[in-house]
Structure formats: structure tokens, C-alpha cells
Amino acid sequence: MSAISAPRTGAPVHIRVGGTSMDNIIFNASETIGSPWLSALKNFNPNTRFTLQVPLARNFPVDRLDFARACIDALPNGTQQLDALEIGNEPDLYPVAPTRPCASSPDRPKGYGPEDYVSEWKAAAKNLTEGVDALNGQNTWYQALTFSTGVVQNIWNVQALWNDSVDQGEFVKTVSQHYGSLEGDLMNHSKIISDMHSSFGPAISFLQPRGVPFILGEVGTAVGSGCTPPSPLKLYRSLGAALWTADFMLNAMSMGIQRVSMMQGTNFSFSAWQPVTTAAEPKGVHGNWYGHVFAADFIGTGGDFQIYPLPINDTHPHIVSYAGYNSGLLTKLAVLNMRFWNGTNDRPAVNIELAGLASGITGARVSRLTAPGGSAQLLNISWAGKQWSAGDDGQEPKGNNSVVVNVVNGSLAQNVTAFASQALMLEMIRV
Predict the structure, then answer these.
(1) Same domain? 316 vs 285
(2) Where does the Beta-glucuronidase C-terminal domain start and stop, copy by copy (predicted)?
(3) Among 30, 72, 167, 238, fewest CB within 10 Å belongs to which?
(4) What's the structural domain count of the chain?
């Protein structure tokens, strides 16, 4: 699948390798988390860039150094492929998790707090810089403050910890929302926006003027709770999930979030695809994959890209729009109709009207993210007429049903309709 996204945006694929399991490893070159695991890094395109997590929950400095050295050595292009080393994962949970039956005891005593974490993090960063030869002289980023979704922000506060920990690191926050329904949660734009701005807005506002990028390290529509199984699969593999993904990604860009690492794992209910067939899950492409392709095509390869959310019209509260600009010129419009449709009645629709477009725009190429069976549709989802399949192993499918609509005197020359549970992209065509 990674072969698709890079050509769409002109940027290398970035993979974050980490999580609670990585934070708790004990490295042994001859064991599973050793040479056999490291060899997988050589299977990726040598232009792929990585954020690699090194353990802090298991706070063994020598082991951490050995693991960092081994990971860098396993990358075909070494530190040229290393975007960051992420030290630890969700330290706010160290004093309370994991709990039985996942593990016998928490990672830290109950009194463990931000000051303890900062001290451990700074020691680990210093130790890595001095102890890993490949990092000497490198402009190395160490990702910090990788908090959990439910972090208590008035205790684990970015601004309060700034001077002590992240002056040389990126800020990463994990996010995983446990949604209960398509209509009420997953396709609820106002909920999506409210959740994102309340969770991330203050940190972004603080970090941006200081030149520290804000990255979301783990994003998924749901991950379950503790050791319990994830929520029902159909909710997260549907057309509605694709629309949620597109809306989330475009809004993240408009907020100034530098990168979003979507969670991907074997047997994860919300993964974009299942890479292999297991006893629990067949190999397959899932609905939210199409939201990623939509977002990647919206970014495009034009460079100097900026995105702005457009105001919601009270007459059509389900219509969500974003404008994309390259070097200050309008090049894309995304229109998402987030109205839930169950596929049984006539599909509601809204006509999209554009006026006042620049004189150099002669047309708009219109592509659709859709499915014939409605919001909960699992099969027959398509983007611009294309459908990906497990049998193709992620290769780009043939075909394209995009249409070009002329622009006359700054307006669309014919109706463009956004049906319920559908997303449109309008690409501006200039002389």
C-alpha cells in the first residue's frame, strides 16, 4: 500500500513503529525482538522514513542503546531514513497501567509524575546522543510527551513541561476515539471538530511559534478498552469510516498538525487494510483506506500547500468543505456530505454552487468517494471509480470516472451534486 501514497503527494512514506508493546520490550539480538524482527525494516523502500520508539517503560539504558544501534544498522540508508527516536509511550499511564490480566503490576509507583518522567526522558536522550555513534553530529529529534488519549492535561501540561523536556523534541499525542454509532459519532463533523480542537488546540497554539511540530502518533476510530476486544468491526470498515478518515485528516491539516500516524496492525478492527489472512481476519482492504487516498490526492504534488476549512451553511449543516491552495492559488475543493444514509430510501442530495472563481480557471475535475449501499456499506466503496482489492496487494487499480465540468464567468456551467454519505473533490483546471 505504501507504493500508492508517495506518488500522490511527492513525499516519502513515513512509518511510526511503536506503542505499548515497543515501550516494554527487552532487546536480545538472538530472540524474536532481535535479528528476525529487525530484518523486516530492510523490506521497505529505502526512501521510507521511520520514527522508531525505544523503550522507557522498561528503563534499561544499556538495552535501549543496543536496540537503537540495531535499528539504525538495519535501515538500508541508516540515519538518512531516521526521522525521530521516540522515547517511551504514554508515560502518564505508567503509574496506573498495565493492570491484570495484561501484566502483574504498573510500570512505576503511584507517586510517579511529570517531574519523574522529565528526568528519565532527559537522561535517555543524553544517553542516546552520546552512546549511539550513528547519532553523533546528527540533528536528531527525540519525540517527547507521547501522552495517552485520556491524559490529565492540567497535570501533564505541555507548557509546564516545556523548559524541562521538549526543547529538542517533537510533541506527539496519541488519540483513539471509541465511537458508538455511524450517525451519531463517526459521521458527526461537529463532534470530530470539537474533540480535536479541545484535545490538541492549546498545545498546537503553544508549540507553533516555538517551531516545534505537533504530531499525532496513534490515531484510530476505536481501539477498545484495556484488554477487551475492539468494538464491532462493521462500524470502522464502512463508507462512513472512509468519510470520517477524510474529514479527520483534512481538519488536522487545517489545524497545523504536521503529521498523523494512523494505527495499522494485524487484526486491528480499524486498520486501513489487513495484510495477511489470519484465524481472526481475512486479508482485505477496509473502508477507511479510501479516506486516506482521498486525503493524499487532496494534498497532491503541487507543493507550498495550505488548507482552510470553509464555514458551515446553516441551511445544509451536513455539508463540510475545505479549500486547498498551492502558492496562494486555489487548486482544490473538498466537499463532504456527512449526512447518514442507510441505503433504503432515495439518496438525499445537495447541489454545489461555485461563483467568483478566478478568471484563469476554465473547469473543475470532479471525483467522488462513494458507495451505492449507503453509510454502512462494506463493499463496493470507490474513489474516482477505483476499487482496491486484497488480491492486487495494493497495486493501483485501473479506471477513472472523474468528470470535467466547465467554468464560465467564474461559475460552474452545470450542476454538481453531493449525495448523502459521499465526498467530492473538485480540482481547478487553469488555462
Answers:
(1) no
(2) 322-424
(3) 30
(4) 2
Q: Which helix (H) or strand (E) holds 207?
A: helix 189-207
Q: Which DSSP symbol is given to 232?
A: P
**Based on the number of CB atoms within 10 Å of its own CB, is 150 exposed (0-12), middle (13-18) or buried (19 or more)?**
exposed
Closest CA to 332 of 431, 430, 425: 425
| DSSP-assigned states of every residue in 158-196 | HHHHHHHH-TTS-EEEEEE-----IIIIIT-HHHHHHHH
Name the CA radius of gyration of the chain, rounded: 23
Q: Which pLDDT band holds residue 212 (cuts at 50, 70, 90)? A: confident
| 87: Cα separation from own chain's centroid | 20
Last residue of one domain, picked from the residues 299, 332, 352: 299
- Which has the closest alpha carbon to 426: 374, 378, 361, 373? 361
**What's the rounded Cα separation, in Å, for the pair 173 and 181?**
24
Q: Tell me if residue 412 falls in helix, strand or coil.
A: strand
Q: Which three cell numbers stand for residue 260?
A: 498523523
Same-domain status, 178 and 39? yes
Identify the weakest region by mean pLDDT among 63-72, 139-148, 247-256, 411-420: 139-148
Q: Which domain holds residue 369?
A: 305-430
Of 239, 274, 299, the residue at which a domain comes to its end is: 299
Residues 31 and 148 in one domain: yes
